Amino acid sequence: MELDEFRIGVDAWIAENNELLRPAHQGVGTLDQQMVHLSAVKRLAYDAGWMRWGWPIEVGGLGGSNLLRAYLGEALTGHDIVEPGIYSMTEVLAPTMIDYATPKLAATMVPRLLRGDETWCQGFSEPGTGSNLAALQCRATRTDDGWRVSGQKVWTSLAQYAQRCVLLTRTGPADSAHRGITALFVDMDTPGIAVRPIETMHGAPEFSEVFFDDVAVPLDRTLGDEGQGWAVAMDLLPYERSTALWHRAAYLHRRLQQLIETAPPGSLDPIRLGEATQILYAFRARSRATQHRLATGERLGAETSIDKVLVATAEQAVFELVEEGLAADITLGDDPAAARWRSEYLYSRAATIYGGSAEIQRNIIARRLLELGNDR
Amino acid sequence: MDAPDRELFERSLRHATEHHSGAALDEALDELGWRDALVEDRRVAVSLLFELIGAANASAGALEHVLVYALGLQGSSATAVVLPASGEWIPPGVVDGERLLVNGIGLSSLERSEHAVVVARDGDRDMAVIVPTAELRLTPVAGLDPWLGLVQVTADGVTLTSAPTPLDGWADVVAVGRVAIGHELVGASRALLSLACTHARERIQFERPIATFQAVRHRLADTLVAIETADAALAAAWEDPSPQTAAMAKALAGRGSRVAARHCQQVLAGIGFTTEHPLHRYVRRALVLDELFGSARTLTRELGDDLLANRRLPPPLPL
Question: The pTM is what?
Fold first, then answer.
């Protein structure tokens, strides 16, 4: 399947199934509503075949380039069918399973994620381990037939909906840093796991605290080898900073377009509007080039931190304009459209925090791309 | 151009720009066949050369060839083009009956050309007029960056001897100029960043290289982000050569060079403020180049005004 053929097919499919694909809720909806809708859309896209293109045949895909996945996500977010953040989790977690799970496990599990049967989460951050990921302390201890996990995660997106978790655990000594980390694939219904959603300022409890109290995990749920968890995490991050960002770009383009259509006369400063437009354009150009590098089999690395800085910069530039241009909606509006602008504006404040903060990205750029050495 | 050819070509260009400037560089470029490359593969010829010129802080007349070609006047007697006045992109000439009025600027190579193209407004049309350079008044400009060797070009009334050629698409010619200068700005910005990174690794304070301080590292990281932002937009401008894309790319390159100048000057601190260090040459160059064909600020303002008038974002490149 070539990209052009795929593009025409997806566009036609979206046009034909527009009513089916539209969310039933008005405005931003609740997170519960978004998740139900997301599952329905993934199921429809999977059954129509579109969701399977770009994934290997061994995990229920139909093969073909990653560009096909990139386009499907672009179309679904660009047409306001799905929210990019929750949709693109697949792009982060499925490649990790394909690369590190046993082939049998990947073949069983990945189709469930693609089809929308399941939600997965990513257990990385801990209360004492935000930017300093390698200091994580959630402990996994070897038993005869697997692992026992005890500890706590936080900022775990969608954990309250998730059936599975890609979990980073400490298996080496407490001070073994990045060497003593092991990645596990954990069933969220295992006894001993408690999830507490966190209320956030943008109004959706997207993140949770997750508590593990002597949780049993079978040995064949180890992703990669014991002690290889840091590599799993590092290989996952470029995915988080590539296809998912391309999807987000389509969403930002749609929202900026809607802003300039609806902002009252005189409410937008032309220079700031011009700047936001330029940054978004350049970000899309960069993200597009990243997609094409991925398609030629290039291994992505530290340079994707530039993509990440750019998406956050573009998102905040766009939503700072929104806050100015639609000030009445943001500050006082209570209708669904206003509530949606407000929620998205507030969420944009987190763009420089989640997924590796702006400071961490700059540290990576300094050390890896500018070769400035370690920072101490 | 295939990869090995391109690499060889880049190496020759790098050697030329690092060792020559002005007339000598123009000669070196002629010898190594840059003008043939311009015809054969304009993207490679322009993007490679202008980034290298920017990185080497060299001056050259290459932009004239790029513009002559964009005007479709290759093969004419003209080997130079009068550029719009600094900060402007309206044509530098005005046709007034039988006479031509000129207010623009020229590159250092203009003086060495016998004939130059002046694009001129004639009512609501644009005309390409070829005039003997001797008929133009050329006043050397020192200004902020005397090493660039710009000249002020004026003429109060050149008598038209031949019929001017009507020109459609001045906006496209401007776009080509903007992309070329955008690459030169990116080259200058990369050189600034490289100077600052070298200094940060070598300069010891509090018994450690200043590159270990996060305040320094983040300035340099932000500089690289600004450069790569411009670079991505320039690459897009080659794939979608619309005037609007070129204007965005030039604005990002201009703003990026100002970011680079600000952060790198701060990191280079005292030594960067002296003429013993090359930093000042790049800082000067960036500010002067940013004004050519419209500065980052004016292009951004124009884009914003345009968006507010038309309420339509520029179409992004399809995947």
Answer: 0.96
